[in-house]
Structure formats: structure tokens, C-alpha cells
Amino acid sequence: MNIEQADTILREMTKGESLLRHAKSVSIVMRALAKKLGEDEEKYGVTGLLHDADYEAHPEEHPNVIVKRLEEMGETEIAHAIAGHYTKWDVPRNSLLDKAIVAADELTGFIIAVSWLRPTRMEGMKVKSVMKRLKSKSFAASVDREEVRLGAELLGWELSDLIAFIIPVLEAHQEELGLLPNE
Fold first, then answer.
1. Is pLDDT of 183 > 70?
2. pLDDT in tens, 5-33
3. Cα torsion at 153, 95, 114, 177 (round to 10°)?
4. Scanning 26, 32, 91, 129, which has its CA 20 to 30 A from the CA of 167?
5. Can you tell me the distance from the alpha carbon of 164 to that of 125, in angstroms, rounded to the nearest whole number?
6. Which domains does the chain have, with CATH numbers?
7. Using an 8 Å Cβ cutoff, are 131 and 160 in contact?
8. How far is CA 145 from CA 90, 130, 134, 172, in A?
9. Mean pLDDT, to the nearest integer, of 42-54?
10. 8 A C-beta contact, residue 93 and residue 102
11. What is the pLDDT of residue 182?
């Protein structure tokens, strides 16, 4: 499956602008992780794009609807990674792809949430400001801090290093993600 096919599936299942932005941002981070790890950028990008594709239409069944669809299409590796993109679902994370989606998902969303507080959005964002916000339980309270920590751990990275990796990736794509600084 390529990114265009994945985008078609995503847009069939997801209409909300916020969730579409999240999918695109996680896809961008996943592609960057694939490049850094020497993995398949297209596969990683597709996984990021589709990881929450069924969440809006089928929140009670998430991620089972998209996982089943991918399995029926023969995309078993992507389906497995999506099935386990939250560690509390107790799906084994065997491959780098399985681990990378956990590392990218919550943290990417959190960093974007931090950017909305800043007039310069992603520009000039520092790791320490993200780390400080992570300690504030009331900020972006729906983000599972343990999941963020486990994501970095699964890749064998320090959390600060993962944040330092993600910030410039998002900054490089700030226009397409709608994260341009306030004028």
C-alpha cells in the first residue's frame, strides 16, 4: 500500500480536521523515523497515517475496524503495528515498526499541543519546554504520559532525544500541518 491509497482510506473514515492533522503529523514523524532507522519510509508513513483512521467513526471498536480492513488487504505488518499502537492493548511489539508507532503517536500529538501555546508555533521550540509541559498533568490531560515514556523506551532512546528528533521534523512541515506562526 502506498501513501496515496492510505490517504484515500483515511479520508473515507475520518472527516474531522484535528484528527486528519494528527494522522498527517504522525505519518510525517514515522517517515522520518524510518529514514533514521534505515526502514521502509512508505510503510512507516502509511502506518502513521492510518493508525487512528477508524477512531472517529468507530471509537468503541478502535483500532479493530482499520486493523481488519488492512488484514483483508494483505497488509498484515501494518495492521499488527496499528493493533498495538497503545501499550495497554497488550499486543506484542516485535518489529521496529511496532515500536516506532508507539513512540510517534502520543508524543507527536503532545508536541503539537505545546505548539498551539506559542505564537511562533514550532519555530524555536525547545526540548525543555516540552519536558516541562509533560510534567504538568493538567496540560493536554488526555495524553498518556506513561505511553510517551514507553514509546521512547521501546526505541531505546532517551525521551529528550526523541523530542529533539521530532521538533525539527514537525517544524520542517509546519505549513502543510497548519502550524505556521501567528502573524
1. no
2. 999 999 999 999 999 999 999 999 999 99
3. 160
4. 91
5. 9
6. 3-172 (1.10.3210)
7. yes
8. 17, 12, 7, 25
9. 98
10. yes
11. 77
Q: Is the dihedral of CA 149, 151, 154, 160 positive or negative?
A: negative
Q: Count Cβ atoms below 10 Å from residue 166 Cβ, excluding itself.
A: 26
Render pLDDT for 126-182 as a digit per residue (tens, 0 to 9): 999 999 999 999 999 999 999 999 999 999 999 999 999 999 999 999 999 999 987
- Contact between 52 and 62 (Cβ < 8 Å): yes
Confirm if 93 and 154 have CB atoms less than 8 A apart: yes
Q: What is the mean pLDDT of residues 86-114?
A: 96
| Cell numbers given for 36 | 533514521
Q: What is the 3-state secondary structure (H, E, C) of the chain?
A: CCHHHHHHHHHHHCCCHHHHHHHHHHHHHHHHHHHHHCCCHHHHHHHHHHCCCCCCCCCCCCCHHHHHHHHHCCCHHHHHHHHCCCHHHCCCCCCHHHHHHHHHHHHHHHHHHHHCCCCCCCCCCCHHHHHHHHHCCCCCCCCCHHHHHHHHHHHCCCHHHHHHHHHHHHHHCCCCCCCCCCC
